Amino acid sequence: MHSAERERLILEYLDRKGFVSFQDLERRMEASPATIRRDLERLTSAGLITRVRGGAKSAEGAKGAQSAGVLGALRPGLAGVPFHENIHRNRPQKEAIGRAAAKLCNAGEAIMIDGGSTTLQMCQHLADLNMQVLTNSLHIVNALLMQSGTRVLVPAGQVFREQNIILSAAGDDGMPRFHAPKLFMGAASVGVAGLMQADIILVGAERRLMDRADEIIVLVDSSKFDGPSGHVVCPLQEIDVVVTDEAVSAEHVKMLERAGVRLEIARV
Predict the structure, then answer these.
(1) Mean pLDDT, range 33-55, rounded to an integer
(2) In this structure, how many other beta carbons lie within 10 angstroms of the beta carbon of residue 36?
(3) Rounded Cα gap, residues 92 and 121, in angstroms
(4) What range does the domain containing 54 cover?
(5) Residue 71 has pLDDT above 50, yes or no
(6) For the segment 122-140, what is each residue's pLDDT rounded down to a tens digit?
(7) CATH code where residue 154 lies
């Protein structure tokens, strides 16, 4: 059972009962205590539940919300900077990061690329690698379609025009059966709390991608460190590699090292 499905079941139960015990969750979901704790931590960070002694209860104002994806579907668009604005921010750094990230790929490999203005910069460097790429980004689809040797897969779901990405707003899987050794993803910000996004619907979508990957590779320019706070996608310890530019501070380098994250510096 994927994390998104577990979270949906937790929220549905709380919608009916208002409280669920930790022991009841273990019985119902047949998941380990550590896995359930991580699920509850993500839902708490998203403001959907409140942790209490022995379990969890519905957060004030979250009554009736059956999943993080449902909350996102109630709005016409996503929070955060629209793609057409973000693509021009720190463009040289993003291009260098995309070039460095592409060097982490192997010919013939199957990978996933999450939508974003930095991950888009990988695409031009994948042309001769004959890869399979699962992506939720229409911008990335357009960039890869010009490559005759690249096979492109997309999930099912709703198109969000601001970011030009496809997300499953109902919180279901919405993707073909696919597993990849690497997932390349961006972030609204990265800090001691972990990788963050501006919109809660992105959290569930990215967690579903992360569940299908062996290695999580985050592409962020140095301005994203300690940027605006947001919804936590995952703690730093779940990230394998961060690719950023040479302006990253010594403090943030140490932060990543303490979390066991490998750092790749892209030279502009």
Answers:
(1) 83
(2) 19
(3) 10
(4) 3-66
(5) no
(6) 999 999 999 999 999 999 9
(7) 3.40.50.1360
Q: Domain end: 66, 93, 120, which one?
A: 66
What's the pLDDT at 36?
87
Structure tokens belonging to residue 64: 């009736």
pLDDT, position 1: 56
Domain count, the chain: 2
Compute and round to an integer the Cα radius of gyration of the chain: 18
**Exposure of 216 by Cβ count < 10 A (0-12 exposed, 13-18 middle, 19+ buried)?**
buried
The gap from C-alpha 167 to its chain's centroid, in whole angstroms, comes to: 11
Amino acid identity, position 45: S
72 located within any domain: no
Evaluate if pTM is beyond 0.85.
Answer: no
Q: Which of 148, 87, 145, 156 is nearest to 119 (CA)?
A: 87
Rounded Cα–Cα distance for residues 117 and 75 (Å): 22
| Mean pLDDT of all residues in 196-200 | 83
Q: Which of 113, 171, 110 is closest to 137 using CA atoms?
A: 113
Q: What does 29-62 look like in DSSP terms, one character per residue?
A: H---HHHHHHHHHHHHHTTSEEEETTEEEEPTT-
- Integer angstrom CA distances of residue 226 from 64, 116, 192, 230, 247: 33, 18, 8, 11, 14
